[in-house]
Design a protein that fits this description.
With about 230 residues, the protein is mainly alpha-helical. Helices cover about 70% and strands about 5% of the residues. The chain is built from six helices and two strands. It has a two-stranded antiparallel sheet with strand order 1-2. The longest helix has about 35 residues. The two termini are about 35 Å apart. The C terminus is likely disordered.
Length: about 230
């Protein structure tokens, strides 16, 4: 068992490498895109609905409720971004039941890319809600002396998002690898089930933190960032 999908090389030519992180990430995106297309192809507004549509509505409703509870009343505006983050991380963990599959979230490059997406989305939503001037003024709150600290905070929380998700996913894989070498039957099955639960929790935490950061930028205050602790 590999501790990181970066260690699995499918194809290599010179300095160009096609590792499992790239393959599984694009494969996962294809599955999500194809699945979304299939589920939403024949939506019904009547009482009789397909099971997949009911499942989709439950997931969407739950994500919208969480976004509103964080403080963003126009939840539909943020649903696409926050929902995609949650579904991607959650599905990456669910697919660990497939033999030979390594979740791309076990690679620091993947978690960094997800964190960068949040890093870019925060000012975009902040500017959309407050305007460019209003968003830039938020860096001077509560006093202009906080400007360098607020800027450092933007980068440090991005790093924290990436390392937090990577560390939690990596630790589960490492524990499973150790138990597999010691007791190759019972405990790995239990740890695999626990890994699925951990993956769901990490997907929830990552998406909630992204929502909290967006809410802080949209409101023009840094108070919501306190939830990160």
């Amino acid at each position: 068992m590999h501790l990181s999908p970066d260690d699995i090389i499918f194809w290599e030519y010179g300095f160009i490498k096609l590792n499992a992180t790239i393959v599984y990430t694009w494969g996962l995106m294809f599955v999500l895109a194809a699945g979304s297309k299939a589920v939403t192809r024949k939506l019904s507004v009547g009482l009789e609905r397909a099971r997949w549509q009911n499942l989709l509505e439950i997931i969407v409703s739950a994500i919208k409720k969480q976004i509103e509870e964080v403080g963003l009343r126009q939840s539909r505006m943020y649903l696409g971004f926050v929902g995609t983050l949650f579904v991607f991380v959650a599905t990456a963990s669910l697919f660990t039941v497939i033999p030979g599959y390594e979740p791309p979230t076990g690679s620091l490059s993947t978690t960094t890319a997800l964190a960068i997406c949040v890093f870019i989305a925060v000012p975009l939503y902040g500017i959309k809600e407050q305007g460019l001037g209003g968003y830039l003024r938020s860096y001077l709150e509560p006093t202009p002396l906080m400007l360098p600290f607020n800027i450092i905070g933007e980068f440090s929380r991005t790093l924290a998002l990436a390392v937090r998700l990577f560390g939690n996913m990596m630790s589960g894989t490492m524990i499973l690898a150790i138990l597999l070498s010691i007791t190759p039957f019972f405990f790995p099955i239990v740890m695999s089930a626990l890994g699925l639960l951990t993956g769901m929790v990490q997907a929830y935490i990552f998406s909630i933190l992204a929502t909290v950061y967006i809410a802080a930028a949209a409101s023009g205050t840094a108070a919501a960032e306190a939830n990160d602790s």
